[in-house]
């Protein structure tokens, strides 16, 4: 008796495809393979019966060969012979660090209502005086030394400057970049640099420094004036849009060496994704725009509900198909959400963890404490050590053991788990007070978005495979 294995089937470019869940492999199905899976989708049956039933649609020898191929790739297998369960594979220790995020300050000059660090859902008390407001140059240097040591045999490391508002500590940022470049050169390594900013402090000398030093910049901005100023305002309630817009345009004009992206936080009251995208790309000039739903407890006025996720998904799908039309013609589009997911699909990603937090990525608080990521920097209960004393390997191992996707029962039945693995730890902590909980509140959204990206990938594999070949080159650089 043969049965179909775990997969998700979809259509793209008028052809059937299969996404094999355990391996995250994608196969374009010919007519015979599709017919076999159709039959097995109705229920298991003996091989000889299957060949006989398909005799009117395909040559028996062709059916036999197709069955052999489907069995080889584990799309089909004996009914009573379960696939052997691979033992839970934990990452080797010590796992090399690829990205370190420095929270160079826990202060901000804006008062964004939904802010996860300063708003109603904050998990790090930045007001109690226990953490210094600004990272010192000495701590920043120690962080660089920590990063280069923890990067192991990797020839390249990535240093991200974060906050609060990152540019409030611009002098330390400047000196740290120079130090990191010098130390890396002495060790035969390279360091890439990036930062996130609300753009209010982008003075001409700051822009010049970022451009001259090839620092990739992400600007946190929520769209046109009425959306930006709905939540992203100064503490006195004044508009940030009118302050930010001319500074962003000057940054885009001067800094052409590295990507300048926009990062948009979507809320229940700012969900016009297409209008935001059109404004930031066509009217402001960003080349890349990425969107993320607000991280918050469900009772907040700005939290996105079920209907909001449906609305968001519908607009994401529209933008994804615009991306497809551009990619087929080798034109840039700028919707980074679909590009990032396509890259993961192309790499054959099957995640044991939703992201690199606590593994290849860590965050550093202003005092040098090392955390899972920048969102937990300063939260002692999520500490993994310090830049001076190193990583607490026992704490890291316990975290990785508990947060592996195999420990999330709900995820074990979901076909989208290779690309999701349960979702953001910070989101889970904010929603459920437990970083190990899967983010069940947006499962349908994730499945819908993953299917859309699989369809886009399938379309490109038929209509412009050269586009995916360029992804191959990009995948090789992201190690």
Give the number of helices: 16
The assigned structural class equals alpha/beta
Major beta sheet summary: 10 strands, mixed
Looking at this structure, what is the CATH superfamily of the largest domain? Aldolase class I
CATH top level of the largest domain is Alpha Beta
The oligomeric status of these chains comes to single chain
Describe the structure.
The protein is α/β, with parallel strands linked by helices. The chain has two domains: 2-78, Outer Surface Protein A, domain 3 (Alpha-Beta Complex), CATH 3.90.930; 99-382, TIM Barrel (Alpha-Beta Barrel). It has 16 helices and 15 strands. Strands 11-10-9-8-7-6-12-13-14-15 form a ten-stranded mixed beta sheet. Strands 2-3-4 form a three-stranded antiparallel beta sheet, covered by helices on one side. α6 packs parallel to α8 (241-254), α10 (306-328) runs parallel beside α15 and α11 (336-346) crosses α16 (465-477).
Which helices and strands occur, and which strands form pairs?
Blueprint: E1 2-4, E2 7-12, E3 15-20, E4 25-28, H1 31-41, H2 47-53, H3 60-72, E5 76-78, E6 99-103, H4 137-150, E7 156-162, H5 170-186, E8 190-197, H6 204-212, E9 216-220, H7 225-231, H8 241-254, E10 260-266, H9 273-284, E11 288-293, H10 306-328, H11 336-346, E12 361-364, E13 369-371, E14 383-386, E15 390-391, H12 393-403, H13 417-420, H14 425-432, H15 443-463, H16 465-477
Parallel strand pairs: 6-7, 6-12, 7-8, 8-9, 9-10, 10-11
Antiparallel strand pairs: 1-5, 2-3, 3-4, 12-13, 13-14, 14-15
Helix pairs in contact: 4-5, 6-8, 10-15, 11-15, 11-16, 15-16
């Amino acid at each position: 008796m043969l049965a179909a294995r775990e997969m998700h089937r979809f259509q793209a470019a008028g052809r059937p495809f299969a996404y094999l869940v355990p391996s995250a492999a994608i196969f374009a199905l010919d007519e015979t393979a599709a017919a076999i899976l159709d039959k097995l989708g109705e229920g298991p049956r003996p091989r000889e019966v299957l060949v006989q039933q398909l005799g009117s649609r395909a040559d028996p020898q062709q059916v036999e060969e197709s069955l052999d191929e489907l069995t080889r790739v584990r799309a089909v297998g004996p009914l009573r012979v379960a696939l052997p369960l691979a033992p839970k594979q934990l990452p080797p220790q010590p796992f090399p660090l690829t990205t370190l995020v420095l929270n160079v300050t826990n202060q901000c000059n804006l008062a964004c209502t939904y802010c996860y660090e300063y708003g109603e859902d904050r998990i790090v008390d930045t007001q109690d005086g226990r953490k210094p407001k600004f990272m010192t140059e000495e701590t920043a240097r120690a962080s660089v030394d920590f990063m280069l040591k923890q990067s192991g045999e990797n020839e390249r490391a990535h240093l991200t400057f974060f906050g609060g508002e990152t540019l409030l500590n611009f002098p330390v940022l400047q000196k740290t970049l120079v130090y990191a470049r010098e130390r890396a050169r002495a060790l035969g390594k390279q360091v890439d640099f990036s930062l996130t900013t609300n753009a209010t402090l982008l003075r001409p000398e700051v822009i010049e420094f970022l451009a001259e030093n090839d620092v990739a910049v992400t600007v946190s901005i929520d769209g046109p004036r009425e959306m930006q100023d709905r939540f992203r305002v100064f503490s006195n309630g004044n508009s940030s849009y009118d302050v930010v817009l001319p500074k962003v345009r000057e940054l885009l004009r001067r800094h052409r060496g590295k990507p300048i992206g926009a990062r948009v936080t979507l809320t229940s009251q700012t969900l016009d994704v297409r209008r935001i995208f059109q404004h930031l790309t066509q009217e402001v000039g960003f080349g890349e725009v990425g969107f993320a739903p607000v991280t918050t407890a469900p009772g907040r006025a700005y939290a996105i509900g079920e209907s909001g996720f449906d609305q968001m998904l519908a607009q994401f799908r529209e933008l994804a198909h615009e991306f497809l039309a551009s990619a087929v013609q080798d034109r840039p589009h700028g919707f980074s959400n679909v590009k990032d997911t396509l890259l993961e699909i192309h790499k054959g990603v099957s995640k044991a963890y939703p992201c690199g937090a606590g593994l290849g990525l860590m965050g550093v608080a202003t005092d040098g404490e090392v955390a899972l990521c920048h969102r937990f920097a300063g939260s002692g209960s999520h500490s993994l050590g310090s830049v001076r004393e190193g990583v607490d390997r026992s704490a890291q191992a316990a975290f990785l053991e508990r947060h592996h996707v195999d420990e999330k029962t709900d995820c074990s039945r979901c076909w989208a788990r290779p690309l999701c693995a349960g979702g953001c730890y910070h989101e889970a902590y904010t929603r459920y007070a437990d970083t190990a909980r899967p983010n069940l509140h947006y499962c349908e959204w994730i499945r819908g978005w993953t299917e859309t990206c699989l369809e886009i990938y399938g379309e490109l594999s038929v209509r412009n495979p050269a586009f995916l070949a360029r992804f191959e080159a990009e995948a090789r650089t992201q190690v």
